[in-house]
């Protein structure tokens, strides 16, 4: 169910409650459509970050591999 922002503002200012339960106004505003676009944007940003995360992880693994190799060679020289 879509709820307009004006409707939410009207209900909020008039103090209309939903019986004994607490009505979640933020959730209602999210359902009005603003949240849907925000959610899509957030999911897209997360998806855009995945390739960068993969590259960083690969670079770190390469660095670790080189470091271990250097440590093994240094250790072999001392013994």
Shape: rod-shaped
The total of helices stands at: 2
Terminal CA distance = 74 Å
H-E string: HH
Beta content comes to under 5%
**Assembly classification:** single chain
Major pleated sheet: none
Let me know the average pLDDT.
76
Can you walk me through this structure?
There is one protein chain. This protein has 79 residues and is an all-alpha fold. The chain has one domain. The protein is 81% helix and 0% strand. It has 2 helices and no strands. The protein has helices at 5-14, 25-78. The model has no long low-confidence stretch (mean pLDDT 76).
Short summary:
The chain has 79 residues and is mostly helical. Helices cover 81% and strands 0% of the residues. The relative contact order is 0.08.
Topology record:
Blueprint: H1 5-14, H2 25-78
List keywords for this structure.
mainly alpha; single chain; 79 residues
């Amino acid at each position: 169910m879509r709820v307009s922002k004006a409707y939410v503002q009207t209900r909020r200012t008039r103090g209309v409650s939903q019986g004994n339960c607490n009505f979640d106004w933020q959730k209602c505003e999210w359902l009005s459509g603003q949240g849907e676009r925000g959610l899509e944007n957030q999911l897209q940003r997360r998806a855009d970050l995945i390739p960068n995360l993969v590259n960083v992880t690969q670079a770190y693994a390469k660095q670790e591999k080189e470091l271990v190799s250097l440590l093994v060679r240094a250790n072999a020289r001392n013994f």
